[in-house]
Amino acid sequence: MSTQTPETETETETEPEAESGASAAPDHQQRRMDEKRARAEARDDAAAQAATEFEGETVELKVFRYDPEVEGKEEPRFDSFTVPFEKGMTVLDALIFARDEYDSSLTFRHSCRQAVCGSDAFFINGSQQLGCQTQMGDLEWPVRVEPLPHQDVVKDLVVEMDHFYDQMESVQPFFDPDELPDGELDEQRQSRENREHIKLSTRCIWCGACMSSCNIAAGDNQYLGPAAINKAYRFYMDEREGEQKRQERLEIIEQEHGVWRCQTQFSCTEVCPKDIPLTEHIQELKREAVKENLKFW
Amino acid sequence: MAERYSSFRSGSTTWLLQRLTAAFLVVVLAFHFFNLHFVTHAYNIEFAGSQARMSEVGYYLTMVLFLVTATFHGVNGVYNALVNQGIEGKAKRAAQIVLGLAGLLLVVQGIRVANTLAGF
Amino acid sequence: MSESYDRGLVEDFGRWTEFSAGMWAWVFHKFTGWVLVGYLFTHISVLSTSLQGAQAYNNTLSGLESLAVVRILEVGLLAVAVFHILNGIRLLFVDLGVGLEAQDKSFYASLVLTGVIVVASVPTFLTGAF
Amino acid sequence: MYEHDVIVVGGGGAGLRAAIAAQEQGADVAIVTKLHPVRSHTGAAEGGINAALRDGDSWEDHAYDTMKGSDYLGDAPAIDTFAKTAPDEVIQLEHWGMPFSREDDGRVSQRPFGGLSFPRTTYAGAETGHHMLHTLYEQVVKRGIEVYDEWYVSNLAVTDEDDPNDRECHGVVAWDVQSGEIAGFEARDGVILATGGLGQAYDHTTNAVANTGDGVAMAYRAGVPIEDMEMIQFHPTTLPSTGVLISEGVRGEGGILYNAEGERFMFEYGYATNDGELASRDVVSRAELTEINEGRGIDDEYVYLDMRHLGEERITDRLENILHLAEDFEGVDGLEEPMPVKPGQHYAMGGVETNEFGETCVDGLYAAGECACVSLHGANRLGGNALPELIVFGALAGRHAAGEDMGEALIETGPSEELDREELGVPVGLPSEQSDTAEPAADGGEPVEDVDTRSSEEVVSDAEATEEERIETLLEREDGVNHADVRADLQTSMTENVNVFRTEAGLEQALEDIQEARERYQDVYVADKSRTFNTDLQHTIETRNLLDVAEAITMGALARDEFRGAHWRKEHQERKDDEWLKHTMVSWNDGDPELWYRPVILEGHEETYEPKNRSY
Ligand SMILES: Cc1cc2nc3c(=O)[nH]c(=O)nc-3n(C[C@H](O)[C@H](O)[C@H](O)COP(=O)(O)OP(=O)(O)OC[C@H]3O[C@@H](n4cnc5c(N)ncnc54)[C@H](O)[C@@H]3O)c2cc1C
Ligand code: HEM
Ligand code: SF4
Ligand code: F3S
Ligand code: FES
């Protein structure tokens, strides 16, 4: 149902205006006031009717609420919303419905609706998932939606992402080749195998689900975390990358709070909405680091 | 930003040692357990028996190595677990010292025991 | 962001049931590892009685062995050690990048195998304990 | 107040490229964006980037295809610049490490795309936009360019001269979504708008929820004319339930379309007997809807797109992402069954009028990317031509804003003396009661005749004060209309009336609906009173922008009584070159929108074009 708000009982009739122009204004004014009143009444009833109003199946959505500024929301709590269920409905659709129909202060990040922007990773029924990629029909009801664990909550489902971004950016996530072909329109060559090798790692959408699921990241704030290590992997394994940057980056990830902290819990790999084999990548880098260091012995 | 991750030593060495000791321990620990619970039963152990076993140089050396690796593996494991919980600064320094001393003590005491049993 | 916003009860509500195989393996491995270190220290101190002579050594050992609790604890130790060994082997394979897709299955296998070995060893361990 | 040389509004492909270019010119640049850059909708682009890279291809051919695709509503100087620069820009991306799909010899792969005479679409799997966006952001990180993410830009700080050509842009006003802080951003050298699409004016769209046409609406209200707004592209292959796009790459690789009767209708019903499924998007969209309207659709709603015959290996190699999309959002396994598809709003060819350097008529104000209209796509955009547009014109705008001298532009901007005006018989613009409170001039200050004497800092702080007041008013209201209702009604009407098929009555109806929505919007209120992460407030302000752009789209569509490119009129089934080789321009005119026209430029820096029949 995308982002469209479902029709409500306040749908206005659209009688076509015969004449247009200024003369229509008082008319409009009148109608506007009427509508306004009707709408206000309807809204008051809405909540009460909610449970009985919808025909067909409904599903209960329990959403974590918190706002440091608003009285009554300073204490974290769960709010319940009854949402009409349709086949194909995602958790994000349900949240949008709840927001547009019941409580416009319900706050969550979202944008693309197609699992590429990475803004709507939530803790849904106890695991980190993208709201837009999770079918309501596949979940146990009632559906419980919380902000990502182990991150500061800004408001409702919105968490502070700065720490995650810092970690992502600390592995020098950019390409830095030693030299570039200088002929006009000359590209660097990359074998298909090599592209294949890094392909999965380039899929990351910075949603932070992996980081939130990792117990080590929860305990050790300095731990780079699976996403950042995967980002490093993406460059480290790229055959086009320059030798010097490669070494520098390896030094970053093999710091005490780098790859060694990973205890192969696999939960990152399990929650990643882009199916990136994170644990495998981390392990590969550990072995690379050991190999590199053995060379100097 | 690399300086934020400065550390006192490369993680790869201890990480690798933890694995190598683990691989070694699999064999020795299994042998040790089997030896003292199934071949000789624990409830039958006596000083004389221990002494007999320990007097063999091979066994003695294996046991000392067992002790050293197990201590390293165990102590380093505990230290890792603490770092995973995010200890930093003073606490981390303290953990290093305490664990290091405990490990040393354990190895020294263990060797004394072994020496006694071997009759050195 | 050095401390996390404390969600109190909300944070913990129902959380443990949602652990997955890899996390349980980690928890168990940690627990068993700590027990083993603890045992190693105890073990050496018990053996240290040998420094006071053969008599003391024999007395301590047989004294301990005659206690049913100790026998039961020994079975526990076996369980702990066997799990740590098996899961340790699993982890070594994971470090080598072998069988990552089956990591949950290999964890369950370690659990089952531990159970089997422990049950099979109970008679040997408890002989004459009661 | 924050201060930088160049301020880029928006962190999508266009914004990031502009920022990098300006920074390379030595400017102190900041990106102000309502989403963190990697969350921009550029990341959703799937198919690819067009550029003439190989032997046997040439930029002239690319330019020719683009002009033909535009149905001769593109401006030649823009098209030439575009086709000539695209190869360099694409190679630049490769040098920055973008993981393109590769050939056996290690060079970047290219594939055929609709409307192109050569397979010149470079791609990275079916996630080209994702890789491009991340590659660009990586370079931004590398350069340490300042990013104010989750800052919502709500207005431009522009001086108040009567004639928009005399106005000057000194910065923007934005608020930090997370904390609610409102702040002015002064730009010493220039402001570059790169706010992306406006798909949220429709309810079935491939665009993100954040694509609300903010930049277009802000520039429009600051006096910059907006161009060819009626030219909205509908993509022929979107999933029916969500609007999620199935890339043209599927057809490029050989996917076929068929109707409920199992007929390959593109050929059998003669919609495009040469190119079949690979005909231009507007042609395919209309073909599908005709099939559906004539009862040969499935469930009266969609047709099938089938790629099974391509084989699993080829599909997973080149279109793997499509399998995930079809599975996650429609529950269909693309390897086993055909995928249901129907047309959906996809792209706005029109936008803020700029010249070929991305400059608008207001001094110091630039626009690039989907929100701009250099007039490259004309009446119809070819698949794979938007991503190169972002980098080509993003870079040009960035460099120009940072002070590089590029010489004289061939494209003229801003309202000119001899306007070719058009009147509509339907009311547009602000409803009567609103006109006194309407911003009389660019930034809401008092209008002045000749020169605005305020310093640039004053202009910015005045704009900031006005904005603070506006937000205060919205937050103070205790009761009123929820913006979501207004937005929903607007979207429904637009999808019903200003769609692929357009009728006079429908368009008039839409203008009425918009007018009515505008009136209701006057009573809009924000229920959430919190200053922290107030998305209610943000969406409310966005809805206002949607109203303005929807109105301009519909006005242009109603006036243009011909059939050109994406714009199809029931009553007027032919392209009227004698009358309509001209761009639709809409000027805000202080709340009383004015419709006027500017001739199409068919003579470029190097090439001159002759309108030809567009058949595929
Ligand atoms: C599904 C899909 C597939 C596509 N596939 C292709 C393809 O294969 N090939 C191709 O060439 N083109 C494709 N396109 C078109 C192309 O992707 C877009 O036109 C292009 O990405 C737009 O880029 P942009 O930088 O202009 O805007 P966006 O990437 O949308 O970025 C807009 C930026 O502006 C910011 N912003 C917006 N409003 C404000 C505000 N008020 N204040 C502050 N910041 C603001 C946002 O945060 C965002 O960062 C596709 C489009 C879609 C929707
Ligand atoms: C017999 C074979 C053994 C194997 C195969 C083994 C394997 C491992 C491995 C691979 C780890 C590292 C886990 C990680 O860092 O991811 C580990 C951790 C550990 N081991 Fe062992 N080990 C063995 C014996 C022992 C013994 C005898 C002791 C006790 C002295 C011990 C104590 C520990 C401790 C304390 C940890 C750290 C646990 C934690 O993370 O908290 N292990 N073991
Ligand atoms: S690695 Fe996966 S889970 Fe982690 S941020 Fe990237 S996409 Fe999200
Ligand atoms: S969950 Fe954490 S411990 Fe490692 S495998 Fe993943 S990073
Ligand atoms: S809304 Fe973009 S990932 Fe879910």
Describe the structure.
- The complex is a heterotetramer of chains A (297), B (120), C (130) and D (616).
- Chain A is an alpha+beta fold and 297 residues long.
- In chain A, the strands form two sheets. In chain A, strands 2-1-5-3-4 form a five-stranded mixed β-sheet. A two-stranded antiparallel ribbon of chain A has the order 6-7.
- Chain A contains ten helices and seven strands.
- In chain A, 38% of the residues lie in helices and 11% in strands.
- With 120 residues, chain B is mainly α.
- Chain B has a domain at 67-120.
- In chain B, 80% of the residues lie in helices and 0% in strands.
- In chain B, helix 1 (11-39) packs across helix 3 (57-84), helix 2 (47-55) packs across helix 4 and helix 3 (57-84) packs antiparallel against helix 4 (89-118).
- Chain B is elongated and about 50 Å long.
- Chain B starts with 10 loop residues before the first helix and ends with a helix.
- The longest helix of chain C has 29 residues, at 68-96.
- Chain C has five helices and no strands.
- Chain C has one domain (20-126): Fumarate reductase/succinate dehydrogenase, transmembrane subunit (3 helical TM bundles of succinate and fumarate reductases, Up-down Bundle), CATH 1.20.1300.
- With 616 residues, chain D is α/β, with parallel strands linked by helices.
- Among the domains of chain D are: 2-47 and 123-232 and 346-401, 3-Layer(bba) Sandwich (FAD/NAD(P)-binding domain), CATH 3.50.50; 235-344, Flavocytochrome C3, Chain A, domain 1 (Alpha-Beta Complex).
- Chain D is built from 16 helices and 22 strands.
- Chain D is globular.
- Classes of the chains: A alpha+beta (297), B mainly alpha (120), C mainly alpha (130), D alpha/beta (616).
- Chains A and D meet through helix 1 and helix 4 of A and helix 3, helix 4, helix 10, helix 13 and helix 14 of D.
- Flavin-adenine dinucleotide binds next to helix 1, strand 2, helix 4, strand 7 and helix 11 of chain D.
- Iron/sulfur cluster is lined by residues 204-210, 226-227, 230, 271-274, 276, 278 of chain A.
Which properties best describe this structure?
heterotetramer; C: 130 residues; mainly alpha; 3 helical TM bundles of succinate and fumarate reductases; 75% helix; elongated; disordered N terminus; D: 616 residues; alpha/beta; FAD/NAD(P)-binding domain; Flavocytochrome C3, Chain A, domain 1; seven-stranded mixed sheet; globular; binds flavin-adenine dinucleotide; binds protoporphyrin IX containing FE; binds iron/sulfur cluster; binds FE3-S4 cluster
